[in-house]
Amino acid sequence: MVDIIEGYETEEQQVDAIKQWWKDNGNTLMIGAVVGLAGLWGWRFYNDSVIEGQEKASQAYNDMLVTFESQGSEADLDNVKSFISENSSSNYAILASLLLAKEAVLKADFELAKSQLVQLQEQNTYAPLNPLINLRLARVEVELGQYDAALATLTRITETGFIAKAEQVKGTAYLKQGDVNNARVAFQAAIDASNGRIDPVLQLQFDDLAVANQQAADEPVLEAN
Questions:
Q1: What's the longest Cα–Cα distance across the chain?
Q2: Which of 188, 185, 165 is nearest to 174 (CA)?
Q3: 219 burial class (0-12, 13-18, 19+ CB within 10 angstroms)?
């Protein structure tokens, strides 16, 4: 399967691309998977029910999203949770779960964000989403001070398009642990993997680390009398 995420620079663009891909191709893929197994009448029934189910889930997701966005900063996460519960077998539940995790982070509810992302990590069967889920989970684990867990999560990310971001988060985790040497190595790896499109925050992190190291090197060494 072609990785539809590749070529989109931000995570939100990647999620939008996935949503559009599902909208354009989701029914076709499900139809192709069962066409060889279903009889003519059974196939027609299945086809109609799948299309109807996807259309309902799509409409329900759009309705939930409109309501959620209209609430602004006072948005109630319970509506998103209800949608996920009621549409757990739909691809739209995955998008809603990503939304819930993102909003939980914005509200500094990192425990809720982590539980949602761990659940996605365990249940998601759509491979192109895995690096996005793991990257966001690692960031949340860093916020929770769970640095070893974050580093372990980042080892799951091997996709080329996510290496720069993964190394940047790895550098942050090392830095918060006080491991300056590994932090420097990770930030440099992130820069090298950026292919000339270096995140300004990453460049600032690397430069600040270099300045701090230079200042430490320039400090006079006091000799004992």
A1: 96
A2: 185
A3: exposed
Q: For 10-24, what is each residue's pLDDT tens digit?
A: 566 666 666 665 565
Residue 147 in contact with residue 176, Cβ under 8 Å? yes
Positive or negative, the Cα torsion across 170, 165, 137, 124?
negative
Where are the chain's structural domains? 8-127
- pLDDT tens digits for range 143-192: 999 999 999 999 999 999 999 999 999 999 999 999 999 999 999 999 99
Expressed in angstroms, the distance from the first to the final Cα of the chain is 70
Strand (E) or helix (H) holding 89: none
- DSSP letters, 152-215, are HHHTT---GGGHHHHHHHHHHHHHHTT-HHHHHHHHHHHHHTTTT---HHHHHHHHHHHHHHHH
What is the gyration radius of the CA atoms in the chain, in angstroms?
Answer: 22
Mean pLDDT of 32-42: 45
Q: Is the pTM of this model over 0.85?
A: no
Q: How confident is the model at residue 63 (pLDDT cuts 50, 70, 90)?
A: confident
Count, residues in the chain: 225
Question: Is residue 116 within 8 Å of residue 101, measured between CB atoms?
Answer: yes
